[in-house]
Specification:
Blueprint lengths: L2 H23 L12 H11 L10 H27 L4 H6 L10 H15 L12 H11 L5 H13 L3 H11 L2
């Protein structure tokens, strides 16, 4: 058996175990792998060392394991997102959660319900996909002359809150074209 086949087999087993750890232990209220504390990362790496000999002092190996954790978490979040998009309504998706959600702790369920409650209190449903608010404002300004200085002045507190001062200057430029 060649050395390359052995390393790919070990790689496959390592990725599989990391995926199982991510699905069972990783907190759902964290968006990105980079945002969690290093102490939590070390706990997850310590958990993988029960089945694999990983030298955490080797920086190349630590970066490799870190990249694997990051990739598996992104894949896990994408799978959950795809699962919920299969349902016609949000209520139906919440009634039938995916199997991975049943293993979550009570704290994570409480955080999820709090987020749902806070989302229902928002005045504006901001659902534009990958387009940021600045893109939408610019597009509306280009397509119509609806945006005047008075409207921008009314929207200024919101624009300031989101640090979109550049939008105002761009809208002024459009008015004077």
């Amino acid at each position: 058996m060649s050395r390359r086949a052995t390393s790919s087999r070990v790689h496959s087993l390592l990725v599989h175990d990391i995926g199982a750890i991510i699905r069972s232990h990783y907190p759902m209220n964290t968006c990105y792998w980079l945002t969690i504390f290093s102490s939590e990362k070390n706990d997850l790496v310590d958990e993988i060392t029960t089945n694999f000999e990983i030298d955490s002092k080797d920086s190349r190996l630590a970066n490799y394991v870190n990249r694997l954790y990051n990739r598996r978490y992104r894949e896990f979040k994408a799978e959950l997102n795809a699962y919920y998009k299969l349902h016609k309504t949000c209520e139906d998706a919440l009634i039938n959660p995916s199997l991975e959600m049943f293993d979550r702790s009570v704290d994570q369920w409480m955080a999820s319900s709090t987020n749902i409650e806070n989302r229902s209190k928002k005045k504006y449903n901001y659902r534009t996909g990958s387009h940021p608010l600045s893109y939408i404002v610019e597009e509306m300004a280009v397509l119509s002359r609806f945006f005047t200085n008075q409207l921008v002045d009314k929207m200024l507190p919101t624009l300031l809150r989101y640090n979109f001062l550049t939008i105002r200057t761009q809208l002024w430029r459009l008015e004077y074209l």
